[in-house]
Amino acid sequence: MGGHALLVDFAEQVTPAVTEAIRAMDRALTADPFAGLQEVVPGLVGLMVVFDPQLCDHDQVRAQITKRLGQLSSAFDRPRQHKIPVCYDSAFGPDLVDVAQQTGLSVETVIAAHTSSRFEVTIYGFAPGYAYLSGLDQSLRLDRKPSPKRGVPAGSVVIAGGQCLITTLTMPTGWWILGQSPQPILTGDGARPFLFDVGDKVSFHRISRAQFEKGRR
């Protein structure tokens, strides 16, 4: 990956064993970094290892990774649990009716299916703080919309495929917008800039418009 990174591929398809191996390598490198390691970025089937080319080269980094591959621990740190408030008011969930029509469900059933889903943070990507959450209820799995919507506000709770995420910036999206959360995802803390860690568990609970406005203050 250019002169300053290596991409470590574990597999071609996502499986629990692959996810566990990637997280174990992430933990191993973070807990015992080699000289020149700058960042480890987990992905769905691999991870990117970013290094300072003035302190090490590709061959040295490859040797460090190879050594750790035989020492990976499958012991997970206990994942944190997050319960995120969402307002499904029509002003915040402009696609709720369309999702209901596409899935053959009522709007209330769509909301119930979303709040009963148990999500896991799989990766970060695309934009700062964009945590991709796997575990969306099968009944809500839709392809992306044919065309994106512009100006979608930060805090929007959106779904596509089998995933969900909470937007952190005002920007276009082709995902289906179910609601909006007052919970900030960007923390402002340099040591832990995002609310979630990869592997954390996330669920959503419904709040009213009044509770949403109160939570934003």
TrEMBL record:
Residues 1-196 form the Carboxyltransferase domain. SMART domains: AHS1. GO terms for molecular function: ATP binding; hydrolase activity. Pfam families: CT_C_D. Keywords: ATP-binding, Hydrolase, Nucleotide-binding. This is Allophanate hydrolase. It comes from Neogemmobacter tilapiae. The lineage of its organism: Bacteria, Pseudomonadati, Pseudomonadota, Alphaproteobacteria, Rhodobacterales.
